[in-house]
Amino acid sequence: MAKYEKIADDLRTRIRAGEWAPGAKLPSETPELTAHYKTSLPTIRQALSVLAAEGVVDKVHGRGNFVRKPRTVVVRTNERHQWEKDRARQSEQTRLQTGATEHDTGLTVSDLVFRAEFRETEAGEDLATLFGVPVGTALLERTYRTRYQEEDEPFNIARSYLVHDVAKGNADLLDPSQEPWPGGTQNQLFTIGIELDRIVERITARPPTAEEAEELGLKPGVSVFVLRKISYDTSGQVVEVSDVTLPGDRTEMVFTTPLNRW
Amino acid sequence: MAKYEKIADDLRTRIRAGEWAPGAKLPSETPELTAHYKTSLPTIRQALSVLAAEGVVDKVHGRGNFVRKPRTVVVRTNERHQWEKDRARQSEQTRLQTGATEHDTGLTVSDLVFRAEFRETEAGEDLATLFGVPVGTALLERTYRTRYQEEDEPFNIARSYLVHDVAKGNADLLDPSQEPWPGGTQNQLFTIGIELDRIVERITARPPTAEEAEELGLKPGVSVFVLRKISYDTSGQVVEVSDVTLPGDRTEMVFTTPLNRW
DNA sequence: GAGTGGTCTAGACCACTGT
DNA sequence: CAGTGGTCTAGACCACTCC
Questions:
Q1: Contact yes or no for A199/B256 (Cβ under 8 A)
Q2: pLDDT digits (tens, 9 = 90+) for A159-185
Q3: CB within 7 A of strand C (chain B, 27-66)
Q4: Contact B20/B67 with Cβ under 8 angstroms?
């Protein structure tokens, strides 16, 4: 076993044993750790980079290395979909009160900041197949970023696609200044006569790309969930496709599967 | 921007542009890349380590650096639960044919190898609360590893917990040599008079711990799904808790949420 | 044995943070 | 300004893969 691995193992063990509390500063790379482990600086740094990649340690330039604190997580359930459907036909007053994200997180609307960007695009192979339309069909692409009021970086990025010809059934749907829309996508679809039958979510997990790390403000040692949500109407037609990126260190997803009785 | 970041960006762009196909070998660190970017070896290696952490590049000792190929993924659906419930009361002959993993993956039983380890343990705070039993209650802990016949490392590790007093209602349930059990856990519960009402899965994503990377044979730049599956019987009681670790680069999870009609 | 990546050293200099 | 981490160099030697 390499020296840097031994050092990483030793530090990991000591951290787990509670020698340093979460948030506490580790000894400095130079001169403390190099002296303690009787080795050169690059070797110490290599050991620490292993722990940073595991999410055990936060490296902070100019301040030191710290034991990473667990992040407060945002729970995202699949019950939000039925909940949103039930609200879709309610009065605007009711719909205004809470959105699906607030429903999941228990936060109030004022804690969160949304930003929406709309543009028209053409269906590629992938989306054309899903929607069952020819490649090149006009789509409405809507990008949403949600963040906490007191933070700089969004904690989720969602890109939603609708067939443009369908969406234009209600001119307000093409207008980003109408966002955030009270009642969410299911109410929007309701205004153009669409009822959802089911929602399918496909989830993968991987390290963020350079762009995602940048945009979500992710440190090394954080994974992302990549979620594709596909909404089907009551005729089995795909009516909305949404790609959502969520930081793994602050998201917990909960799926409840009810079973038929014997 | 640091020199190694520029090099990483440049290589990432060239890889995305298809300059090297998936699986192709990149130029050697020395002397090719050091000469091309007119820099020292450690700087080149730092750039490559960034790409390895993103999962873009595979570093292979003694052979070279390669463009990482997408892994063939194993799909895991939540429909497996209803499927397994429907089978739980079928004849052994029927149950023998296929298990839930084969149902999801489309593989046959003979492609997969299972290993089961059983032991008795005591409920900690966490599990005691879930099961609604006192801390220290005897639990049956069952660890399962599933792997492809032709591979060395398992692609999933599952640790299942049952209350020992409940499980001993059928002595066969305490015997690891009965595994793999035709019809899975839901049939096992059926033999002791338990019917499931719903299954709740809580999912997080993060980089693997050192132990997980070791046990699942994960390369740097792979995330894991950590899934806690909680099974409730028809009286609302928790009857099984299962913690599953799945490699993010070869697992896709699919959850279908049916919605009630208006 | 040739080619290639992995580890490690010793030290210089830069950049960021807080007093 | 002192303390601390970030980048980079030049080179030595080891370990793995494949012919």
A1: yes
A2: 999 999 999 999 999 999 998 898 899
A3: 28-30, 41-42, 45, 59-65
A4: yes
Cβ–Cβ pairs < 8 A, chains A and B: 148
Q: Which residues touch strand D (CB under 7 A)?
A: A 26, 28-31, 41-42, 45, 59-65; B 2-5, 39-43, 46, 60-63
In CATH terms, A3-67 corresponds, of 1.10.10.10, 3.30.70.330, 3.30.450.20, 2.102.10.10, to 1.10.10.10
Segment A108-166, tens digit of pLDDT: 666 788 889 999 999 999 999 999 999 999 999 999 998 887 777 788 999 999 999 99
**The dihedral formed by the CA atoms of A144, A145, A146 and A151, expressed in degrees to the nearest 10:** -170
Is the distance between the Cβ of B224 and the closest atom of strand C smaller than 7 Å?
A: no
Q: Closest residue of B to A206, CA-based? A: B223
pTM: 0.93
Q: Where are the domains of chain A?
A: 3-67, 74-254
What was the pLDDT predicted at B155?
Answer: 84
Tell me what the pLDDT averaged over chain A comes to: 92
Q: How far is CA B44 from CA B19, B27, B40, B79, B189, in A?
A: 18, 11, 7, 47, 56
Closest CA to A225 of A256, A251, A199: A251
At residue A41 the predicted structure's pLDDT band, cuts being 50, 70 and 90, is very high
The third-level CATH classification (topology) of the domain covering A74-254 is Chorismate lyase (3.40.1410)
Q: Which A positions 212-241 lie with beta carbon below 8 A of chain B?
A: 220-225, 234
Q: Å from B28 (CA) to C4 (C1')?
A: 7
E strand residue ranges, chain A: 57-60, 64-67, 74-77, 112-122, 138-148, 156-163, 196-206, 224-233, 238-247, 251-258
- Tokens representing A84? 């949103």
